[in-house]
Amino acid sequence: MGKTTAEASSAQLMVDLIISLDGYASAEGWPGWWGLEGPEYLAWLEQEGEKDYTFLLGANTYRLMSSMSGEAAAADSGFSENEGASLTGLAGVPKVVFSSTLQAPLTWPNSKLVTGDAVEAVAEMKCTGTGTLSTLGSLSLCRSLLTAGLVDRFRLVVFPVITGRTGQERIYDGYPDVALEMVDSRTFDGRLQLLEYVPTVLSGPPGSSPLS
After folding, report:
1. CB count, 10 Å around CB of 97?
2. Secondary structure class of 99 (helix, strand, coil)
3. Cα(42)–Cα(204) distance, integer angstroms
4. CA 136 to CA 58: how far, in whole Å?
5. pTM, entire model
């Protein structure tokens, strides 16, 4: 069955994550992107930043990314050309920051602060907006939105590393059971794997009886 006019015009929500093969978002002592970002991947990131996205992020990610974006704009930033372009480009993209600790006005351009409940706010944004809402880091926010059944696309870029000893920020801890239908895949620079799914939150293993 096709989408109704209202469904077709509402905003879509995508959780967008980078991840090690063993499920971590970062690792102690390792550089960003585990040092494995390549020109093809960085060019893709820059192109993604030019799309009709509104990025959703929490306070910690806001502090980190706004600082990196500012550093990348400096002449002697140390970032490569592609790295700098992908980071500085974020300044021009609409961003919604969910935090009870930050105070308005936010200094990163095109950033709106929301201090209330993130799930309620994003549900309203999906109903009233258009285009694509995409998370930026913010693991606890991603988990809350997925658990609430608000996520239309779940997109990962898997980096070919196992960081069992140094891995930090386990991504899937606290997640519900989720069925994933693959809708897209791609390889960057011969080593990074993009996987995109439509997620369905489950009440238990497929075929099991509902818990009483």
Report:
1. 25
2. coil
3. 38
4. 8
5. 0.83
